[in-house]
Amino acid sequence: MCKEKTPILESRHLNKVFTAPDGRPLYANNDISLKFYEGETLGIAGESGCGKSTLVRVLSLLEPPTDGELLLFGENVAGLKGEKKRKMRRHIQMVFQDPTDSFSPRMKVKDILCEPLENYGLIKPSEKAAKARELLKMVELPEEFAERYPRSMSGGQKQRVAIARALALEPEILICDEATSALDVSVQKSIVELLVKLQREKHTSIIFICHDVALIRSVSHRTAIMYLGFVVELAEGKKLGRGVCHPYTEALKSAVFSLDMDFEKEIESLDSEIPSPLERPTGCPFRNRCEKCMEICAAERPQLREVEKGHWIACHLYA
């Protein structure tokens, strides 16, 4: 019998609850249990407001979970504070949607790239120029870009710099939070290809956040679909949406525009917006938008069940 791989990072029944101005609880993440393995990409997809970005902020130790466990290398880091927390953060780095917002316009590219290394005392001032050139080469940018300012670069070039900066500390986990959504389609493709190449070379675990199910499916080894703070489906990337799937996943898949789609088939859309986390429906969180809603859906929240090997769905249709 094959022994299961040990995850680098694992969340166990993770919850994140904020308090609204009127005192009501806002449930951003609910009972999230996920495993992240070396050299694999876990995609996380869902509409805006489903809790994706909050989840990655918790996973990257930028936000503490309200409760639950977060295991990094087997150690529960959910309650870490101070210097211990800062040291753990170097193992999980993030690439944001708009790199411009995370760059200082007064800093040259070489300073942006080497800032994380300086923060952890891993580089001397005399080594910065050579290290910057090395990092630029890694993301396929000319070495002379080290003396540039971000304002003189295109969106795709700035995102490559952001990837290089995130990988400067050689983290085990790289989080890409909508890292391609602000780019042109052709540039998106080149950035995704770069990420795949770097993952193959460095065996980095990637968490890829996106609302595009087709893109997620093409780059991820496994994919989690989130809705209203819950994981409603977890499957191997290329199998997602083929055969049985959660009604919400089916709706997301139907909304994807593709040149290969059947243009005679009517494009289906969800009739209403995602409910507020302050006013979650009882039972299944998706029931007020689901055409297959049953009586039990209003009374009982479905749990993730393995419907086939490696494929989990939280839906009463597959009880």
Automatic annotation (TrEMBL):
Keywords: ATP-binding, Nucleotide-binding, Transport. PROSITE patterns: ABC_TRANSPORTER_1, ABC_TRANSPORTER_2. GO terms for biological process: peptide transport; transmembrane transport. InterPro entries: AAA+_ATPase, ABC_transp_ATP-bind, ABC_transporter-like_ATP-bd, ABC_transporter-like_CS, Oligopep_ABC_C, P-loop_NTPase. The keyword Transport applies. GO terms for molecular function: ATP binding; ATP hydrolysis activity. The keyword ATP-binding applies. Residues 9-253 form the ABC transporter domain. It comes from the Bacteria. Belongs to the ABC transporter superfamily. This is ATP-binding cassette domain-containing protein.
